[in-house]
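Appendix B. Raw example, untouched.
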Amino acid sequence: MLQVTVQAKKRVYLPIQRDADPQTVCIAAEEGVLMQFDARLARERADVWTAVSLPQEVWGKQLTITAQSGWLQAVYTKDTLPAWTYEEDLRPHLFFAPADGTIAKVTGLGCRNGKWTLQYTAVPFGTSLQQTYEVSSKDLLHWSTGQIAAEDCPALVTDNEHHWSGDVEAVFGTEGVQWALSAPLKDSPLPIGNVLSIPVCADAQGVRPLAALEKLRVWQRTWYCKPITERFEFEMRFRTAPSNWPNIVILPKDGTCDDVRAQGAEVVLEMFVGKERHISFDFCGKIWHWEALTSSLRCGEYAIRVPAENGKLQLRWYYDRCAQMLFTQSGQAMLINMPQGIGNVEEERSAQVDNIDNDSFDQVQVREPYFAINCDGDTANIISLYIYGLRNARWDAESRKLTESLERGEVLFRTPDYTVFANGVEDDIYGPPCAWTPDGDTVISPVRVTEEFEWRQTPWGDMTRVMDRQEIWKTGEAKLNYPRLYCKYPVVEAAYNIATDVMYKNALPEYNLPGQKGLLNAGLFHGKGEGFGVWMRDAAQAALRTQNLLSPEVMRRTLIYITKAGFDNGDDGAAMPAVAIWDYYLLQGDKTLLYEVLPDIVRLAQKADAHYDADKKLVIANNCPAQDAFPDTEAEGYCMGTEVFYGYMYLAAANICKETAMYPEKQMLWEARGKEILAQVKTLYWNEEKGYYTTGPVGSQAFREGLWEATGMELAIWPRFDIALPEQRERLLDEIQKRMSYFGLTWYPFRKEKNHFWGCCWVSWTLGMAVAAGQAGRLDLVEEFIFQQVRNCIMNKTFHEVIDNDTGKAWRWPGMVWHASSFVGFFINACIGLSWDGEGLHFAPAIPEKLADMQLCGLKCRDMELDIRVHGWGTQAELQLDGKAFDGHLPYSTAGKHVIDLYMCN
């Protein structure tokens, strides 16, 4: 007998040889023998390193392991599970399996306080040892190990199996949920011996997939009304490319990391069977045969009755490397093992080495997941087919390594649906896993939305896209081009860095349309190869919401472009360039720009003149400043937010004429007209009875019924636009806070319809509200605005255009630049309280407690570079410039690098 001594940790790893004879292994501590069992210890090679769990009472103590094998010297102990290498992809992504070995029996299952607990015994691979394991989960898909209190794991309830068939050894369940335990895999090279099926909802009518599975969908492809006149086949690896703008096209895979792929797959099929006697479905090498005469569906040795109802079949499959599951319209389920752990396999000789007569050059070709349909004739028809790529229900090896020792840390913001911690976000809406921020430059979170590759069947053209399909996001070159935010919490730093990353990428040439190199895109809708283009309103809004300060070179080029050729898709198109350009001039002092854009500013102002209503002293405006699909009919032609921008457009145009000493007669007219419009806004849109500004003026439906939308409300309350009086702002803040959901402020609080405008939250239209809240000392509201969006962008690693106000889920286009610009503005304009006018910069800080001691370093404006350091939190501050007291006003003539200290008194 041989003997080794090791220090005990959570697990001891034994080298196993699959075809070795079993031998006795004894593990002992000072107290005596801990366990004795048979194992196929390696004699010539180690096929698998199998983990045996050790009791907690011996962790850290010396263990003696005795056996006959000379490979005993290779035994080691470790606290963590191994980082699987080539075997990682052979493990199930959706189904539950032990770390290695075979589940012998499920001994307990229960749900208490929203947490599911599972207790089972498993036999580590290559041993005779049965060990008990305990895991817990919130959604029955993502499981974590750990000790479970006895009362949390009630006795197992064995369930009725009459809804199940296939490779099923046992069925069990509780609380209306069922699982099937698969029979042990035979002659399998996998590191696991069997699996638990995906959990299903069960009742007297049958079983159906758990709704939580929908949260694993990362992309979808759809087909409607498609005749099957030949073999239909779809391989779940493909790529996208820009088509005729704004469309995209699906192309075959090109074998790069940019290919869209699937780790698991879901197929939802509704099919008219026509006159076909036989229809076969090939799902990753498993053939499912449907026979019309017997109304049966067969896979291998198993068959179930599946009659066509009204000539239709409704079937749903799940594929997960190690197994497949089928659900029928009648509530039946079939579980089929895939012993090789892969799909269709073909052995072939590598074409590059055909001249070498050597078997070592034979290779196994493993196909990507695919789904195919074959019919005898040509009368069958796909009514609808949805194929979803599913993400892994567990971290990949790199993510697991980065997250295994992380702790959530301090609770920063909590709602019933999600919690923002110092080091991540836990979210019940998106479901596990938690999104982690190990540091301010790293976010670990899987894709949470379902990517689409064709326009939805709606008149306004919706599509959800994903640009970053990786679990791990890292700060890139953006951190070298934007000021850096530092605070006590990595989750806040990471959210800020995501925002600057979005702003930076939107101006990169690889995302630009032809002829728009180096200009600011509206978003990253298309991805590399062709961006979504430079939009007049989007660029101007981004400019006003921090980009004029942070990206002056990009914005200068972009502002020139939008005055000439930007996409103008709204009633505010003529107004936005002048407002944004004047803001740029205040910050950068670049008079040359004014001369470059002067002819186009005059042209756009004259365009507005053509829509000016001299009687009402307003510009005709059917839409609010960001809405281009549905007229705001309640405003009856004079939407408030757009009127504000036209008022400021006229003032900006007059100022540009004055600075360039051109068109003096137009300067006088436009200055008077701008003041006239803004006076009308203050008079006609304030509803004293309601206590806020309405979307439409006196006499309109909006005024009578007290209706408003977020863009108008933001401009009314934002101090920079000087619409609301201080006492009015307090009432507006009350109204806004009353209308807030846990996910943000719904854009149209009074609309019941749902689309990407109505029933949704957009980050952009809350920056001015956050600034007003800071100036009013309502730091709780400032925190709420910030942390709602910290949650949003950390979970998704970007800013999608839409956050659904009812569900809290993001969708539509990623990398939205005006959302990112507004989020950065929360810190610069609302917290630090930075504003500017013709004289210089002004600081009026309002620092929430959770952002105490934050720093913003490398903020540049004209010839100055500022490091801004906050000390404490609150709304009262003593300000110092390079160690000397100052009044918060910094003239533009300031040059060089300076430090501003904000000493807060809460």
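End of appendix B.
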